[in-house]
Specification:
- Keywords: Cell membrane, Membrane, Transmembrane, Transmembrane helix.
- It is a multi-pass membrane protein.
- 49% of the residues are buried.
- The protein has 18 helices and no strands.
- Helix 6 packs antiparallel against helix 7 (201-213).
- By secondary structure, the protein is mainly α.
- The longest helix has 48 residues, at 18-65.
- The chain folds into 2 domains: 41-246, no CATH class; 253-480, no CATH class.
């Protein structure tokens, strides 16, 4: 990124009072900061758009090469991977943005890499001790032969997270964007090639593992080449000191992240076990389709928010900054999700094949949850930035209990509606979480109401677009 030139105040002519000049200068600095935020977000969104476009274009092919039951196997594996990945670095990856000097940051990075490798090894030993019959509980015993993708995928994914957040610290968003596109392209190509060879779930899992972690090689190579001098400052003594200084991350943030991921992912494992058959596969496809447009902004803004939030908090401006980010997401993100929900029941069978129509109906149920998550996820690091790790810890365990409890209760009483129960639990949790975050940063009700009013018109426009799209897809389906 090119740096903006420094703002130099004009000589005092006596016409403008000093207080007015100071206010004007602050305004110009704020405007420049916002331009930087827009550029950074744009770069990451570009990479995320490219990555999601690659995956989206491959999906109609993938869903015709693999069955819903095979997708259910992928759903269980992906849920286990994403649950464990959340804390594989003990959250020292998130801590990278906190130190003011790079020597501390690179030692935190070394700490995170150390725990990613060690914990992945521990998980490999646990898998070695499990009998093959243990995988019958997941409803997919074939996982016993494929679960060995898990430990190396976890180690590489942890290193990729460290690399991403190192470049977030450096404001190097271009390499992150490129790595996402490389991962998506490699993963999709692997799944399609192995699907044509009829390898079954093996191709799906290998492609997913590549999509999830291959960027660690691209960013890691760049890091080793450009930061070799800084790496020489890594020492065991410094790592021990920083472990104690940042102990709140493994103590509170790591269990909190694990609970958050478990609340999201473990119900899918339960759905695969309690609703025997392809239900988890339908849910996985529906979740990806809803997540794709959401991640265009959500993932990019979360990393940019984390890079800006510590300084905003020190300046006492975290509340207005957080409301501004949430308001922008309401204006440009909520409408497309609603339009997608309107179109999906008509479009899924047409796009992915007739056996996937159930997934289109699940999109409707998932949409309120994903709207709430879209508004929450980019600013969720506010609790970490304001040193409320204990609050975040409690919130995520409450969410885990709520979501697992509702899924188990409905799955026991009426397995037919277990996916719908999962969707409802997500909406309840994320809307409550958003309210807590806005309160924690000191957001003002008037500012929030103003952002909601600004969002009404674009949301209404996308609703109309969704209705038109639904009629168009229905007509095409009838004609063809």
């Amino acid at each position: 990124m090119n740096e903006e030139p420094p703002v130099t105040p004009a000589p005092d002519s006596g016409a403008t009072p000093p207080i007015g000049r100071i206010a004007a200068l602050r305004g110009r600095v704020s405007a420049l900061a916002q331009q930087g935020l827009v550029r950074s977000t744009g770069v990451l969104i570009g990479g995320t758009v490219g990555a999601n476009l690659i995956t989206a274009l491959s999906l109609p092919v993938v869903t015709r090469l693999y069955t819903p039951v095979e997708m259910s196997v992928l759903a269980v594996f992906a849920s286990l991977l994403q649950t464990l990945y959340a804390s594989i670095c003990l959250r020292f990856d998130v801590a990278l943005s906190m130190p003011e000097n790079d020597e501390d940051a690179v030692n935190l990075l070394a700490l995170g890499a150390f725990f990613a490798v060690v914990l992945s090894g521990v998980i490999a030993l646990i898998l070695l001790a499990l009998p093959a019959s243990a995988y019958d509980a997941f409803g997919h015993p074939e996982l016993a032969e494929l679960i060995w993708f898990l430990p190396p995928s976890l180690a590489l994914a942890g290193i990729y997270s460290l690399m991403q957040l190192w470049y977030v610290r450096r404001k190097g968003f271009g390499p992150i964007a490129r790595s996402r596109m490389v991962q998506a392209g490699s993963g999709a190509a692997t799944q399609i090639a192995l699907g044509l060879l009829r390898t079954g779930p093996f191709g799906l899992l290998l492609g997913y593992a590549i999509n999830f972690s291959a960027g660690s090689i691209l960013l890691g190579t760049r890091f080793l080449r450009s930061e070799s001098a800084l790496l020489r400052k890594v020492s065991a003594r410094k790592m021990r000191v920083l472990f104690r200084e940042y102990s709140r991350f493994p103590t509170y943030s790591a269990p909190e992240a694990l609970a958050h991921a478990a609340a999201w992912q473990l119900p899918i494992v339960l759905i695969a076990a309690m609703a025997i058959g392809p239900e988890a596969g339908y849910l996985t496809l529906a979740m990806f389709v809803v997540q794709a447009p959401m991640s265009l902004l959500g993932n990019a803004l979360s990393q940019v928010y984390l890079s800006e939030a510590p300084a905003r908090h020190r300046d006492g401006a975290l509340g207005p900054f957080t409301v501004q980010v949430v308001g922008g997401l309401m204006r440009i993100g909520v409408g497309p999700l609603i339009a997608l929900a309107i179109v999906s029941p008509f479009a899924f069978a047409f796009v992915f094949g007739s056996e996937w129509s159930r997934a289109g109906m699940l999109v409707v149920w998932l949409t309120p949850w994903f709207i709430a998550q879209l508004l929450t996820a980019p600013v969720s690091m506010a609790l970490q930035v304001t040193n409320r790790q204990r609050t975040a810890f409690i919130v995520q365990f409450v969410g885990l209990a709520l979501r697992l409890g509702l899924v188990v209760a409905v799955g026991t009483l009426s397995p037919r509606f277990i996916s719908e129960a999962y969707a409802i639990s997500g909406a309840i949790f994320y809307f409550g979480y958003l309210a807590l975050l806005l309160h924690a940063v000191g957001a003002r009700a008037g500012d929030i109401a103003r952002e909601v009013r600004k969002a009404l018109l674009p949301i209404a426009a996308f609703c109309v677009l969704g209705v038109v799209g639904a009629f168009a897809v229905h007509w095409l389906d009838t004609v063809l």
